[in-house]
Design brief:
Layout (H helix, E strand, L loop, with lengths): L7 E6 L9 H14 L4 E9 L9 E2 L2 E3 L6 E2 L2 E2 H13 L6 E5 L5 E2 H12 L5 E2 L3 H8 L6 H15 L9 H5 L21 E8 L8
Parallel strand pairs: 1-2, 4-9
Antiparallel strand pairs: 1-10, 2-10, 3-4, 5-8, 6-10, 7-10
């Protein structure tokens, strides 16, 4: 690239596309498209949310509430995504490619609630509301409309099956298998954004889409 960068890796939400159900994934698509036009970029589409850190933040008032239905997704840890990105950046033999980076197991939101309850040592109920109920529950908050839409549609994307992907990208790119479940008896973390979901794109001079 112009600044002398030999390789770049961009992480985006899984199934980022102009018509994605999750509204913020549409922005990810346009950003990725701009970056991918450069000759040294790869991307990793990362799977939605992760069990140890972001997923605990789904718990509000002691329960998970959202219109995820019985849809499934494969949470991946931020640490696993970081390992994938580092591997793509440091290995010149890695191809230019797009990788779906997910955890190893497709889970429903109810199953996630059970896992979080086991880790915390107390039950975490899961309430599947409707889209209308989800929007109404945030209607009086002081957050911007686009954030409310992002919150609701992230659940809805799971419900409609848009995120039902479990890949082997972590173990194929890094020396380790992806983490999948929280440790029993471990309290739910308070901090956000450590478990996520998405897609990674990296460029090593050759072009291939995975």
């Amino acid at each position: 690239m112009e600044a002398g960068v030999r390789r770049a890796v961009y992480t985006s939400f899984l199934r980022a596309a102009p018509e994605a159900v999750f509204t913020l994934a549409r922005d990810h698509f346009h950003t990725r498209s701009s970056i991918s036009s450069r000759p040294a970029c790869s991307s990793a589409r990362c799977a939605t949310a992760s069990i140890r850190n972001v997923l605990p933040d789904l718990v509000d008032g002691g329960l998970i509430r959202g219109p995820a239905g019985t849809g499934r997704f494969a949470p991946v840890s931020r640490a696993d995504i970081a390992d994938v990105a580092v591997a793509l950046l440091l290995d010149d033999d890695q191809p230019t490619a797009r990788f779906d980076v997910t955890g190893p197991e497709l889970l429903t939101m109810a199953e996630v609630a059970d896992l979080l309850g086991e880790a915390a040592g107390s039950p975490v109920p899961c309430v599947n509301g409707t889209l209308a109920e989800a929007y109404a529950s945030r209607a009086h908050s002081d957050v911007p409309t686009f954030e409310i839409e992002g919150w609701v549609t992230s659940y809805h994307a799971i419900a409609v099956g848009e995120l039902a992907i479990a890949s082997g990208a972590v173990e194929s790119i890094t020396p380790s298998a992806p983490a999948s479940r929280p440790e029993p008896g471990r309290a739910l973390p308070a901090g956000p954004d450590n478990w996520i979901g998405g897609n990674t794109e990296g460029n090593g001079g050759r072009s291939r889409h995975a």
